[in-house]
Amino acid sequence: AAVPTGVLALLGALLWAPWRVLHGAPLVELSGDQDFQLFLHKNLEFTRKIKGDVAALQRVVCDTFQLCKEEELLLVRQDLGIAQAPLEQCHSRTFQAEACFSQIRDGLRAYHGSLAAVLELLPGHASLVETLQLDMANLSSNIQQQMEDLGLATVTYPTESGGPLPAFPSHFHHQVGGFFILANFQRFLETAYRALRHLARL
């Protein structure tokens, strides 16, 4: 049966009303919750630290393998099948807190596994990669805990990059794979950071 136009218009208006509803409670109410604000500010700092560590690894890949510019590697990327973990639920126009937190958590878990490829490439920087993985696990756990504390439904999103890592046909492909895992992860973190920061400003 066709959906009445008025209902579609209402749904459209709701979907375009960004950052509005959190499990039935207006975010304005939650934004005054001290524990929620503490969670947001603490994890904004945490996300900033993780972004800095990823940037440090990107510099190492650039210095070690002279892989620095994404546009020069796009043809090789097509052969690798390395996907970006989805975060469309965290964009302001489609934002839903439950879904966004779930996607951040799931994406962190997916990239945690992907970093094994970077660890193999950069054995001399194992401590930085392992620290990064530990921070990611802690951030994912913080988000899971906060969702439970707020009574949010936890949804598990399938992540395209959640499967086993691709078998790299050559060492060069492995290097480029490591480059794109870090580049994708940095973009993922930027979006997650913006979502948390917007919530903290409400």
TrEMBL record:
User: Looking at the record's lineage, which domain of life comes first?
Assistant: Eukaryota
Question: Coiled coil where?
Answer: none
The cross-references to SMART domains, in alphabetical order and at most eight, read: IL6
This protein's UniProt keywords: Disulfide bond, Glycoprotein, Growth factor, Secreted, Signal
Pfam families in the record: GCSF
**GO annotation terms (biological process):** immune response; positive regulation of myeloid cell differentiation
What Gene Ontology terms describe what this protein does at the molecular function level? Answer: cytokine activity; granulocyte colony-stimulating factor receptor binding; growth factor activity
Similarity-based family: Belongs to the IL-6 superfamily.
What name does this protein carry? MGF factor
Organism per entry: Corythaixoides concolor
- Gene symbol here is Mgf
